[in-house]
Every structure is written in structure tokens, then in C-alpha cells.
Amino acid sequence: MKRFVILCILQLFITSAFALGKFGDWTCSVALTGYVSDETGKAPNAFLWIPEECEHVNFAVLAQQNMTEEALLRSPRFRKKMAELGGSLIWVAPWFSQNWSPMTGCQQTFEEMMVGLAGQSGHKEMTTVPIVPFGHSAQATFPWNFAAWNSDRTLCIISFHGDAPRTNLCGYGTSNVEWGRTRNIDGIPGLMIEGEYEWWQARVRPALAFQMMYPKACISMLCDAGSGHFDLCDATIDYIGLYIQKVWEQRGTSLRRLNPSDGWRFGCPVGSDKEGEPITAFPKESPAPWTAYTGDPHTAFWYIDEEMARLTAARYAETDGKEEKVAEIQKLDLRHLVLGESFALETGKQYYYISGPVRKLTDTLFEIIPYDCGMDNPKRSHSAWIVAVCEGDETHKRTVQPIQIVLR
Q1: Which domains does the chain have, with CATH numbers?
Q2: Which residues of the chain have pLDDT under 70?
Q3: Across the strands, what pairs with 90?
Q4: What does pTM read for this prediction?
Q5: Quick check: 170 and 185 in contact, CB under 8 A?
Q6: Comparing C-alpha atoms, which of 273, 263, 276 is closest to residue 196?
Q7: Which residues, including other chains, have CB under 8 Å from residue 119's CB and lie 6 or more apart?
Q8: SS3 at position 324
Q9: Are the CB atoms for 81 and 246 separated by under 8 Å?
Q10: Phi, psi of 286 (to 5 degrees)
Q11: Do 232 and 169 touch, CB atoms closer than 8 A?
């Protein structure tokens, strides 16, 4: 009975916090009153983070609730980079569009959301700031389609462990949205990231085909070497942050379209036609300026400059030629935990937050906390995810193991 009372008090506190518009380390939030979520039966909430002492927001990273979107937007190192760039973060929970089809009303919902966030935050520029759409897995198609319908407002595109532009293999499992004859993302930088242990050539080929169909497209590829579907390690967070920084430096508020020939080229890794197997071959040719690249241009991707191209090559070199190693992960029953309860994991590994109502206290200690987006979503409020990572060595690749925590 006592536990029930405590949980009721916590729920009352969370509900009151929603009414006040203050949510943990988010600046403010608004309800998307024009949309009703199938997951909760009510409007999703859009949470906004603006760096302290930021006088003017330069752009906003927009993500919707799924999995690793939370890991990126809550990451202290990513927020530090965004603070340096004057970038803000928007997280919508639950999601309101997976495909960004204008037939669903998502465009109007987005525009109303930005007006609401501008009013709540006092940053009127939020109604017009450039957007960086970011999505993982089931949300990995929406960034490309958002840009196609908002080409004059998209800073860059990031599809994480997900999809190619106009892919026929959407992460959400149904058909893609047709762009029409005149809609494109020419000159708008787009980044597709695939983990090595989820690599599937069938997902990569549409990106290469897209470049041939749209020669003015600026599509980059990162094979997240040594990673699986749920992994978002510090090195990849830094890569994403640097990518956004370089795009901002070249495009700025004018959002000028970039010319692929001003960038660099680097080859694409080759994997199996069977999903989940390791990369079979990394590029042999060195990165080079666009017109000086000696490899096959039909199997190479664009990079904004020499630094990003060589950083990509360095990521591949960390894994190329190394053996797989299956690490022993501690077997724990992480079901039936309750709010406020903590749990410790074994030493000798690194642990990364992915999603859900859990907080990392130390290198190995975690705590179950009230979810800032509410505890009333039966699909998401009572489950959290982290990953255990065994870093590689001179002969072995890194090993990643997702861990699910289930609340009572």
C-alpha cells in the first residue's frame, strides 16, 4: 500500500510538472494538440533544450521518440557541442510522424509546434530556425522526407542506423512517400550511418543509386565500425557533432546549396547480402578531392571536406582486419524494478544510455527515475535500454550487447 501511495505522489508530481512546462534538463515543452498518439491516446509533447546564456538560436536538431534519439539529445558531450554552435534540441514523445507524409498533417503539426516552442522559450527565432532532422531505425526515413518538403529550412539530414533517401526498405516496415517530379534535396548535406553488425547491402544500394539519379546530392556514409543497431558511442556522437559543425560553417543562416564537386570522395565498405554479418571489405583507395578520386565513383560517397573524409577512413581502420570476439556479459534479471531503485553492473566494461527512465550515476551504477515524458505510455514508460561495450584491442573488434530494463 505504501509503495502504491508513493507511486501516486510521483505521478501527481510528473503531471504537475507537465502543466508547468518544466521537465528536468529541458528548457520547456508544448503539447502537439493537433495530433493524438496511438500509444497514449493524447497529444505528444515536444521538449526543447536551449543552451544556457544562448541569446540567439542558430538551428535546432529535431528528433522523435524511438531509441537512440534520446541517447544523442541527452548526451552531455553532444549538448556541449551544440552550445558551442548555438544549436537547440527538440525531442517529441511519443512520435507524431514516421514517414513525413503531408497527407497526415505532419507539416502543420510541425509548424504549430515551432510557434508554440518559440512562445514558451521566448526565442522568437524558433519559428524560422534551420532544422537538422535526426532519426534512428523506425524513425530513420523521416529525416530525408522532412528535407524534401522543407528544403529551404533544412540545415542537414542525419539517418542513424537506418535508411537511404527514397529507400524501398523503410525502417518502419511499410512503403515510402513519393516525392513527386520536382522535389529533391540537391545541395543539402545528408548523412547515413549504419552499424557494422547491422550492415545490409540492400540498405546501402539505394543510397548509391540515389546519388546517380541526383548528381547534385551531397550524401555521406559512415559505417559505424564495430557497432550494432543500438550502439551510440562517444566517437560517433563526436562524429555527428563535427558533421553538423562543418555544415553550419559552410551553409550558415543563408542555407546555400553545396556543390558536391567542392567536397571529397571516399569509398563505401562492402558487406554481406545477409543482415547482421560483419563487413567483408573496407575501401582500399584513399580519400581524395571529388575530381581526384581514383576509385569507382559509383561506389563512393561525398564528404564535406578532407577532415571528415579522413576521419571516416580512420574509423574504418580501427576495425579493418580485426577478429570478432564474443564477450561474456553478466547475466542479470533486470525485470520488476521500481522507481528510485538502483542496480549495479559488472566492472571492466563501458555502459551507454540509450533510452527510457534510467539514469547513469557512475561508470557501473544506474537508477530508475520518473520519465520526463510521463509514466503513462504502456509501450515506453516502463522499459529502458542501455548497452554494454567491451572495447577492442590490437587484434579484436569491440563487442556491443543491448540490455533491457523492465519496470514493475
Answers
A1: 17-173+182-317 (3.40.50.1820), 342-406 (no CATH)
A2: 1-24, 326-327
A3: 48, 62
A4: 0.93
A5: no
A6: 276
A7: 30
A8: coil
A9: no
A10: -80, 155
A11: no
